[in-house]
Amino acid sequence: MRALTQFFENGSSGSHHPAAALGAALQTVAPEEIVQLHEQSIHTITASVEPEEALRYYRLSFVFLMELLAHYRFKFEHVPNRERALEELKDTLARTHSSFQAVASKYENVLQHMDCGIVLFNCEGYISFVNVLMGRFLGVPRKSIIGLDIKGLASFSGLSRTYRRLIVKLYREMILYRLRYHEVIDENGRHYLVTATYGEELDGDILISVKDVTEFKKIEQSAYQNDKLAMLGKIAAAIAHEIRNPLTSIRGFIQLLRPQLVQFGKEEYAKIVIEEIDRANDIIYEFLNSSKPSTPDKQLVHVDSLLGEVRLLFDSEAILKGCDIELSPIDPGLVVCVDVKQMKQALLNIVRNSLEAIDGGARRERGMIRISAAERNSQVVITVQDNGAGMDFHTQSKLFDPFFTTKLEGTGLGLAVCYRIIKNHGGHIAVDSDVGQGTRFKISLPLC
Questions:
Q1: What's the rounded mean pLDDT across residues 272-290?
Q2: With contact defined as beta carbons under 8 Å apart, do 51 and 17 qualify?
Q3: pLDDT tens-digit readout, 4-18
Q4: Does residue 159 sit in helix, strand or coil?
Q5: pLDDT tens digits, 285-339
Q6: Angle at 141 between CA 137 and CA 142, to 5 degrees
Q7: Using CA atoms, how far apart are residues 404 and 232, in angstroms rounded to an integer?
Q8: What value does the mean pLDDT take over residues 69-87?
Q9: How far is CA 89 from CA 31, 62, 257, 365, 390, in A?
Q10: Which of 188, 198, 294, 329 is deepest in the core (most CB within 10 A)?
Q11: For residues 116 and 136, is the Cβ–Cβ distance under 8 A?
Q12: What homologous superfamily is domain 117-212 in, according to CATH?
C-alpha cells in the first residue's frame, strides 16, 4: 500500500519506480496474492478521499498493477499447475476490473445527480464529461457538447447568444487569469456561482462546477433590505419631529404676512413659500411612514371593493393622461385580512407609479393599467400591470431600496413604504418588467 501511495503522489518512473522495487521483492509471492493485495490496498486508500479523487486513484492503480506484474516477470516454475494458476490470475484480474467499473459507475452516478452543473475539460482542452444538470443549465443535450474544446463550445449553434458570450468571458477570467470563483447572472436574472478546480490533483484536467444561488441571493437581498429600512427608520425618527415643528411655525407666519405681501404686489412669494413648505412636510410624512408603519389593524375586506376604490381614486387623473384603468372581474367572495388604510396606501403608490411610467414613456398605443386579483395556493395574488416604459434589470433590482428613484422630483420612498407594509402583512411583492414592454407588480397576501 505504501508503494501504491507513493505512485499516486509522485508518479515515479525508471529504476526508482515503486513497482520495480516491489516487483523484485515479491518474487516468492503467488501472482493471485499480488492482485488480491492490490485490491485491498486500493480499497483502503480510497475509503477516505473525495469521489473525483477516488476515481483518479482507481485508474492509476491499474497502470501500477500492470507495471508491477511486468517487473514480476511471471515466474511459474515453482507452481505445480501453471496453466490453472494463470487462469485463476486472469479471473482475479477480471473481477478486479469489474469492481473498478462498478466503482466508476457509482461515482459517475453521484456526479450526474449533484445539485450543481459539472463539466470536465481534459488536459488537451476538450470536454470529457458533462452531467445532466449542466446540460439543463445550457439548454442543450449534454452528449452534444462532449468532445468540444472551448472554441467549439463558444461557437456551438445550440447555445443562445448570451451563453456563448458568457462562456468566452468565463474562459478569459477563469482559465487565462486563473480566477477560481466567479458569479454570473443569466438573461433571466438568475444568479450562478461558477467554480474552477485545476492543478496537479486533476492531472492537468479542469473541473468547472456551476451552482444556482438565486434563492440564496433573494435571502441575502431580503436581509439587506431590512437592514436598510431599519437604518432609514432611525434617521427618520431622529429628524422628523425636529424639522416639522419649525416648518409649521414658518408656514403660520407666512400666512399672517400674506395681506402685507398682497399690498406690495408680492402675493406670489407667499404662495411659493407655502407650497415649498407643504412639499417638505410631504417628504417628512413619507419618511415617517417608511420608518415605522404602525402595526396593521387588520380586518376582513372584500378584495373587489378594495381594488374598486383604488381604481375610482385614479379615474379622473388617468383620463387626463390618456390612460385607461381596467379592473378585471373578481370573485365577490374573495376576502383578505388587512389594514385597509395601509394596504390602500401601498396600492395607490403602485398605481401612481404605473401612471407616471405611462405618462413619461413614448408609446404608440393608448395607455392601459390592468388590475386583477385571484386566489392561488392559499394566497390572494393582486396584479397591477401597465404598458408603460418598462425597466431594465438593474433598475428592478434596486426598485424597493429607500431613496432610489428614476424620477426628477421623486424621493425614492414610495415603493420602500409599499415593501414594508406588505412585509408587515406577511405578504410578498415582486416586479417583472422589460424595457419598452411595460411592468407588472404582483402582491401576494395570505388568506384569512
A1: 74
A2: no
A3: 677 666 654 444 456
A4: coil
A5: 666 665 555 678 888 999 999 998 888 888 878 888 888 899 999 988 899 999 8
A6: 75
A7: 13
A8: 55
A9: 7, 15, 113, 83, 74
A10: 198
A11: no
A12: PAS domain (3.30.450.20)
397-406: long-range contacts, CB 8 A cutoff, minimum separation 24: 397/221, 399/431, 400/225, 400/429, 401/225, 401/228, 402/228, 402/229, 402/232, 402/290
- State the Cα–Cα distance between residues 23 and 20, nearest whole angstrom: 5
Q: How far apart are CA 283 and CA 414, in angstroms?
A: 10
Beta carbons of 119 and 204 less than 8 angstroms apart = no
Q: 123: which DSSP letter?
A: T
Matching CATH topology for 117-212 and 299-446?
A: no
0.85 surpassed by pTM: no
**392-432: pLDDT as tens digits:** 887 887 888 777 777 766 666 778 888 888 888 889 998 98
Tally Cβ neighbours within 10 Å of residue 24: 11
> Domain 299-446 class?
alpha beta
Q: Is the distance from CB of 91 to CB of 33 less than 8 angstroms?
A: no
CA distance 156 to 119: 15
Question: What residues does each domain of the chain span?
Answer: 2-112, 117-212, 224-291, 299-446
Q: What is the 3-state secondary structure (H, E, C) of 16-41?
A: HCHHHHHHHHCCCCCHHHHHHHHHHH
Spatial contact of 396 and 433, defined as CB atoms under 8 Å apart: yes
Task: Provide the sign of the torsion angle of the four alpha carbons 261, 265, 268, 271, taken in this order.
Answer: positive
Least Cα distance to 63 among 106, 32, 26, 18 occurs for 18
